[in-house]
Amino acid sequence: MTYTVEALDELCKSIFDKRKEIDDKKEELKLLNNRLFVIQQSMMEALKELDRKNYQSPHGTVTVKERWRVNLPKTDADKEKLFGWLRDKGEEVFLRYATVNSNSLNSLYMSDWEAAKEAGEGMEFEVPGVERPTLFEDLGVRKK
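-> structure tokens emitted (144 positions)
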């Protein structure tokens, strides 16, 4: 198929128009979620004040759920302590819970791969346990 300049311009316009429409919807959804959060907080306050864990209404049931959470270690020293604890629990536990962040792994892999290519060893480069990268194509879009 042959594309004209006008056709390409129209495709670009469609991309930017659709992105704006999506951004507008995201903003609208963000506002709705914020309003919902405020209403839910009000319901939680009401239930606490009434010393109740749930309430059944003609519209449905709401229940206060409680769960504890922990945060990931913030420093390398704390990570090492965690990994030591995981190792002490056994190899199976360590391998299951000592995970790697995907973005961090990709960053490390790509920088090491670039260094291997510069050294003329790009074709042989591999990271044990990690499949070779897959190329994804995407369209970069910037406003004028």
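DSSP finds four helices and two strands in the chain.
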